[in-house]
User: What shape does this take?
Amino acid sequence: MGEIMEHIIYDFKSFVAALQSAGFSVASGGNDEGVFGLIKHGWDDDPGDSPVRWHTGDPDTDPWEWRMRVLDERDDIAYAKMFFRKGGYITREWYPYFLAARRGARGFDEEYADGAYSRECKRVYDVLRQSGALPLEEIKARALFTKEDKSRFDRALTDLQTGLFVTISGRRHKLSQTGEEYGWASAMYCTAEDFWPSEVFAQAAKISAEDAQSAITARVYALNPNANAKKVVKFIFGR
Assistant: This one.
């Protein structure tokens, strides 16, 4: 069997270049889920000579920071819980293929009517469709989720990300009465249609689900000839 395609990553710039080359990646460091991930060492692993280290807070060498930095600085990369209900990246070039595989030309209302998504998903999606990008806590409040509903809310938000109906759009700090930022930044979410230009969806509509699956499968095995076949299918369809 062949070797996994190697990408030398030593900072944010080289990570973005590697991601653009690969097209997609599982985001969990040290765990590629049997498919493909650009960051080879995990949170507690010794990175050796690599300057890339998790949870240092350095925006140039901390992969945890890169999740939001790609959203802050670029408009051609999506990051969300898209693979195995965990974080992952897809570039503008490859997003239409995943859309074609997972959604086709179907909108959320059609999928919901067919029973593919829960009522909780509809509540979350309707809020984002009507209001645009919102931070996590505001989505909860507007969709009338209580503290006791946390697990149902989290599940719904992840289901929508996996289905490529909702994605993370960036982050926002809370503002004091004087307009100063404080506390931890909260992730912002929006519909995929608000995140990407309409051309992405027009391109997806021209690709059959079968062709999309074939293209993504071929790309996965080009990146990792040892990829697990069953997990590749789950990677493509998100379920």
